[in-house]
Amino acid sequence: MIRFADKRDIPSLKNIWGISFGDSEEYIDMFMKYQFGKAKTVVYEENDEAAAMLFLFSCEMSISGKGYPSLYLYAASTLPNYRGRGIMGNMLRFAEEYAGKSGFDFIILSPAEESLYGYYRRFGFIECFREARIYIEAKESEKNPLKASDNNTSDGFSLRNRIIKACGGVLWDYDFFNYAVYENEFSGGKSLLTDKCCGIYFKDKDRVVFKELIAETAKDAVSFARALCENENCKRAELTLPLNMDGAGDFVNSKCVNTGMAVPLNDEAEGAFSGFDKNAYLGLTLG
Prior knowledge:
The protein has eight helices and twelve strands. The chain is an alpha+beta fold. The protein has two domains: 142 residues, Aminopeptidase (3-Layer(aba) Sandwich), CATH 3.40.630; 125 residues, Gcn5-related N-acetyltransferase (GNAT) (Aminopeptidase). α1 crosses α2 and α2 packs antiparallel against α6.
Protein backbone atom coordinates (compact mmCIF):
# COMPACT_ATOMS: atom_id res chain seq x y z
CA MET A 1 0.00 0.00 0.00
CA ILE A 2 1.25 3.47 -0.92
CA ARG A 3 0.27 6.28 1.43
CA PHE A 4 1.52 9.43 3.09
CA ALA A 5 3.63 8.95 6.20
CA ASP A 6 2.97 10.29 9.68
CA LYS A 7 5.16 10.59 12.77
CA ARG A 8 4.60 6.95 13.68
CA ASP A 9 6.59 6.01 10.56
CA ILE A 10 9.74 7.89 11.57
CA PRO A 11 11.56 4.83 13.05
CA SER A 12 10.92 2.88 9.83
CA LEU A 13 11.99 5.84 7.70
CA LYS A 14 15.22 6.14 9.67
CA ASN A 15 15.86 2.44 9.08
CA ILE A 16 15.32 2.76 5.31
CA TRP A 17 17.57 5.84 5.23
CA GLY A 18 20.39 4.22 7.17
CA ILE A 19 20.39 1.08 5.02
CA SER A 20 20.03 2.95 1.72
CA PHE A 21 22.39 5.89 2.22
CA GLY A 22 24.66 4.92 5.11
CA ASP A 23 24.44 8.27 6.90
CA SER A 24 25.09 8.56 10.61
CA GLU A 25 22.28 8.28 13.13
CA GLU A 26 22.95 11.89 14.18
CA TYR A 27 22.52 13.13 10.59
CA ILE A 28 19.28 11.18 10.07
CA ASP A 29 17.90 12.38 13.42
CA MET A 30 18.67 15.95 12.41
CA PHE A 31 16.82 15.59 9.12
CA MET A 32 13.77 14.03 10.76
CA LYS A 33 13.72 16.66 13.49
CA TYR A 34 13.84 19.67 11.18
CA GLN A 35 12.48 18.48 7.83
CA PHE A 36 9.97 15.66 8.31
CA GLY A 37 7.23 18.14 9.19
CA LYS A 38 8.09 20.34 6.19
CA ALA A 39 7.81 17.60 3.54
CA LYS A 40 5.06 15.38 2.20
CA THR A 41 6.51 11.92 2.75
CA VAL A 42 5.32 9.01 0.63
CA VAL A 43 5.84 5.44 1.87
CA TYR A 44 5.17 1.96 0.59
CA GLU A 45 3.93 -0.33 3.34
CA GLU A 46 3.79 -4.13 3.26
CA ASN A 47 3.11 -6.47 6.18
CA ASP A 48 2.97 -3.48 8.53
CA GLU A 49 6.48 -2.44 7.44
CA ALA A 50 7.46 0.71 5.58
CA ALA A 51 9.73 -0.62 2.84
CA ALA A 52 10.23 2.41 0.56
CA MET A 53 10.07 6.19 0.89
CA LEU A 54 10.43 9.52 -0.87
CA PHE A 55 10.12 13.12 0.34
CA LEU A 56 8.44 16.02 -1.50
CA PHE A 57 9.46 19.62 -0.71
CA SER A 58 7.69 22.70 -2.05
CA CYS A 59 9.77 24.98 -4.26
CA GLU A 60 9.37 27.16 -7.34
CA MET A 61 10.65 26.69 -10.88
CA SER A 62 11.53 30.01 -12.49
CA ILE A 63 11.28 30.01 -16.30
CA SER A 64 11.65 33.26 -18.27
CA GLY A 65 10.96 35.23 -15.10
CA LYS A 66 7.73 33.41 -14.24
CA GLY A 67 7.43 31.19 -11.17
CA TYR A 68 5.81 27.76 -11.35
CA PRO A 69 4.82 25.98 -8.10
CA SER A 70 6.82 22.76 -7.96
CA LEU A 71 7.89 19.87 -5.75
CA TYR A 72 11.45 18.69 -5.18
CA LEU A 73 11.63 14.90 -4.85
CA TYR A 74 14.36 13.79 -2.45
CA ALA A 75 15.81 10.62 -0.88
CA ALA A 76 13.81 8.09 -2.92
CA SER A 77 14.86 4.68 -1.61
CA THR A 78 13.70 1.08 -1.17
CA LEU A 79 14.87 -1.61 1.22
CA PRO A 80 17.03 -4.21 -0.60
CA ASN A 81 14.58 -7.10 -0.13
CA TYR A 82 11.83 -5.13 -1.89
CA ARG A 83 13.77 -3.88 -4.91
CA GLY A 84 13.08 -5.02 -8.46
CA ARG A 85 9.31 -5.16 -7.99
CA GLY A 86 8.32 -1.80 -9.48
CA ILE A 87 7.50 -0.30 -6.09
CA MET A 88 9.38 2.96 -6.64
CA GLY A 89 7.82 3.38 -10.07
CA ASN A 90 4.37 3.15 -8.53
CA MET A 91 5.40 5.66 -5.86
CA LEU A 92 6.56 8.10 -8.54
CA ARG A 93 3.19 7.79 -10.27
CA PHE A 94 1.46 8.35 -6.91
CA ALA A 95 3.57 11.50 -6.36
CA GLU A 96 2.82 12.82 -9.85
CA GLU A 97 -0.92 12.27 -9.39
CA TYR A 98 -0.88 14.01 -6.01
CA ALA A 99 1.18 16.93 -7.34
CA GLY A 100 -1.02 17.42 -10.38
CA LYS A 101 -4.23 17.41 -8.35
CA SER A 102 -2.69 19.78 -5.79
CA GLY A 103 -1.90 22.50 -8.33
CA PHE A 104 1.84 21.95 -8.78
CA ASP A 105 3.35 22.42 -12.24
CA PHE A 106 6.55 20.36 -11.97
CA ILE A 107 8.26 17.66 -9.95
CA ILE A 108 12.02 18.18 -9.82
CA LEU A 109 14.77 15.78 -8.80
CA SER A 110 18.53 15.30 -8.93
CA PRO A 111 19.53 11.69 -9.72
CA ALA A 112 22.16 10.40 -7.31
CA GLU A 113 24.15 8.81 -10.14
CA GLU A 114 24.32 8.97 -13.93
CA SER A 115 22.67 5.58 -14.45
CA LEU A 116 19.46 6.80 -12.79
CA TYR A 117 18.77 9.36 -15.51
CA GLY A 118 17.57 6.54 -17.77
CA TYR A 119 15.34 5.17 -15.02
CA TYR A 120 13.60 8.49 -14.39
CA ARG A 121 13.08 9.10 -18.13
CA ARG A 122 10.68 6.16 -18.05
CA PHE A 123 8.38 8.25 -15.86
CA GLY A 124 8.41 11.40 -17.98
CA PHE A 125 11.35 13.21 -16.37
CA ILE A 126 13.50 15.25 -18.75
CA GLU A 127 17.02 16.59 -18.31
CA CYS A 128 16.65 20.34 -17.92
CA PHE A 129 19.16 21.37 -15.26
CA ARG A 130 22.67 21.99 -16.57
CA GLU A 131 25.41 23.99 -14.94
CA ALA A 132 28.92 25.17 -15.71
CA ARG A 133 31.40 23.33 -13.50
CA ILE A 134 34.60 25.35 -13.22
CA TYR A 135 37.96 24.21 -11.84
CA ILE A 136 40.35 26.96 -10.81
CA GLU A 137 43.83 27.19 -9.34
CA ALA A 138 44.65 29.68 -6.61
CA LYS A 139 47.01 32.42 -7.74
CA GLU A 140 50.01 33.15 -5.54
CA SER A 141 49.96 36.74 -6.73
CA GLU A 142 46.42 37.27 -5.41
CA LYS A 143 46.71 37.98 -1.70
CA ASN A 144 43.23 39.32 -1.11
CA PRO A 145 41.57 37.31 1.68
CA LEU A 146 37.84 37.67 2.04
CA LYS A 147 36.12 39.34 4.93
CA ALA A 148 32.59 38.37 5.87
CA SER A 149 29.97 41.09 5.68
CA ASP A 150 27.55 41.94 8.45
CA ASN A 151 24.76 40.39 6.39
CA ASN A 152 22.99 37.22 7.55
CA THR A 153 21.46 34.10 6.00
CA SER A 154 18.34 35.97 4.95
CA ASP A 155 20.52 38.34 2.91
CA GLY A 156 22.18 35.39 1.20
CA PHE A 157 18.74 33.96 0.49
CA SER A 158 17.59 37.25 -1.06
CA LEU A 159 20.75 37.47 -3.19
CA ARG A 160 20.21 33.90 -4.41
CA ASN A 161 16.58 34.46 -5.32
CA ARG A 162 17.31 37.62 -7.27
CA ILE A 163 20.10 36.05 -9.31
CA ILE A 164 18.39 32.71 -9.97
CA LYS A 165 15.17 34.41 -11.05
CA ALA A 166 17.22 36.21 -13.71
CA CYS A 167 19.08 33.06 -14.82
CA GLY A 168 16.20 30.58 -14.54
CA GLY A 169 16.13 27.74 -12.05
CA VAL A 170 14.84 26.48 -8.71
CA LEU A 171 13.91 28.84 -5.91
CA TRP A 172 13.71 27.36 -2.42
CA ASP A 173 11.72 28.78 0.44
CA TYR A 174 13.71 30.35 3.27
CA ASP A 175 13.35 27.42 5.68
CA PHE A 176 14.75 24.97 3.12
CA PHE A 177 17.64 27.27 2.23
CA ASN A 178 18.45 27.89 5.88
CA TYR A 179 18.39 24.16 6.64
CA ALA A 180 20.67 23.41 3.67
CA VAL A 181 23.21 25.89 5.05
CA TYR A 182 22.87 24.37 8.53
CA GLU A 183 23.20 20.82 7.15
CA ASN A 184 26.42 21.74 5.36
CA GLU A 185 27.86 23.21 8.55
CA PHE A 186 26.72 20.16 10.55
CA SER A 187 28.74 18.02 8.13
CA GLY A 188 31.86 20.13 8.59
CA GLY A 189 31.30 22.70 5.87
CA LYS A 190 31.27 26.48 6.06
CA SER A 191 29.51 29.44 4.54
CA LEU A 192 30.71 32.96 3.81
CA LEU A 193 28.66 35.94 2.73
CA THR A 194 30.06 39.18 1.35
CA ASP A 195 28.26 42.13 -0.17
CA LYS A 196 28.45 40.55 -3.65
CA CYS A 197 28.68 36.79 -3.11
CA CYS A 198 27.38 33.91 -1.02
CA GLY A 199 29.50 30.77 -0.80
CA ILE A 200 28.44 27.48 0.80
CA TYR A 201 31.37 25.08 0.74
CA PHE A 202 33.54 22.43 2.35
CA LYS A 203 37.25 21.63 2.27
CA ASP A 204 38.59 18.45 0.68
CA LYS A 205 42.31 18.29 1.50
CA ASP A 206 43.85 21.20 -0.47
CA ARG A 207 40.67 21.96 -2.39
CA VAL A 208 37.59 24.12 -1.74
CA VAL A 209 34.41 22.52 -3.08
CA PHE A 210 31.36 24.76 -3.36
CA LYS A 211 27.93 23.27 -2.84
CA GLU A 212 26.79 26.65 -4.14
CA LEU A 213 28.43 29.94 -5.02
CA ILE A 214 26.06 32.78 -5.87
CA ALA A 215 27.45 35.95 -7.44
CA GLU A 216 26.41 38.71 -9.80
CA THR A 217 28.73 37.48 -12.57
CA ALA A 218 31.01 34.51 -13.24
CA LYS A 219 34.01 36.84 -12.89
CA ASP A 220 32.87 37.85 -9.40
CA ALA A 221 32.35 34.17 -8.49
CA VAL A 222 35.84 33.13 -9.59
CA SER A 223 37.45 36.08 -7.79
CA PHE A 224 35.56 35.08 -4.64
CA ALA A 225 36.66 31.44 -5.01
CA ARG A 226 40.31 32.37 -5.43
CA ALA A 227 40.21 34.68 -2.43
CA LEU A 228 38.53 31.96 -0.38
CA CYS A 229 41.36 29.59 -1.29
CA GLU A 230 43.66 32.13 0.36
CA ASN A 231 41.41 32.20 3.44
CA GLU A 232 41.39 28.41 3.69
CA ASN A 233 45.01 27.83 2.64
CA CYS A 234 43.90 25.74 -0.36
CA LYS A 235 45.46 25.41 -3.82
CA ARG A 236 42.35 24.94 -5.96
CA ALA A 237 38.58 25.22 -6.02
CA GLU A 238 35.62 23.60 -7.74
CA LEU A 239 32.38 25.49 -8.31
CA THR A 240 29.26 25.34 -10.44
CA LEU A 241 27.47 28.34 -11.92
CA PRO A 242 24.28 28.86 -13.92
CA LEU A 243 25.01 28.37 -17.62
CA ASN A 244 22.98 31.50 -18.31
CA MET A 245 25.08 33.64 -15.98
CA ASP A 246 27.17 36.28 -17.71
CA GLY A 247 30.63 34.84 -18.44
CA ALA A 248 29.98 31.31 -17.13
CA GLY A 249 31.22 29.69 -20.35
CA ASP A 250 34.39 31.77 -20.70
CA PHE A 251 36.74 29.64 -18.59
CA VAL A 252 39.11 27.09 -20.11
CA ASN A 253 38.87 24.62 -17.22
CA SER A 254 35.11 24.22 -17.28
CA LYS A 255 32.52 21.78 -18.53
CA CYS A 256 28.74 21.54 -18.79
CA VAL A 257 27.23 19.01 -16.38
CA ASN A 258 23.73 17.62 -15.95
CA THR A 259 22.44 18.20 -12.43
CA GLY A 260 18.74 17.35 -12.52
CA MET A 261 15.46 16.56 -14.23
CA ALA A 262 11.84 17.67 -14.12
CA VAL A 263 8.47 16.37 -15.26
CA PRO A 264 5.77 18.86 -16.33
CA LEU A 265 2.36 18.05 -14.86
CA ASN A 266 -0.08 20.09 -16.96
CA ASP A 267 -0.50 21.87 -20.29
CA GLU A 268 0.80 25.21 -19.03
CA ALA A 269 3.94 23.56 -17.67
CA GLU A 270 4.38 21.64 -20.93
CA GLY A 271 4.19 24.91 -22.85
CA ALA A 272 6.72 26.62 -20.58
CA PHE A 273 8.99 23.59 -20.81
CA SER A 274 8.98 23.53 -24.60
CA GLY A 275 9.88 27.20 -24.80
CA PHE A 276 13.08 27.36 -22.76
CA ASP A 277 16.64 26.17 -23.32
CA LYS A 278 16.76 23.36 -20.69
CA ASN A 279 19.72 25.06 -18.99
CA ALA A 280 17.97 25.81 -15.71
CA TYR A 281 19.97 26.07 -12.48
CA LEU A 282 19.38 23.66 -9.59
CA GLY A 283 22.39 24.42 -7.42
CA LEU A 284 22.03 23.98 -3.68
CA THR A 285 20.24 20.80 -2.59
CA LEU A 286 20.36 18.56 0.47
CA GLY A 287 22.84 15.77 1.08
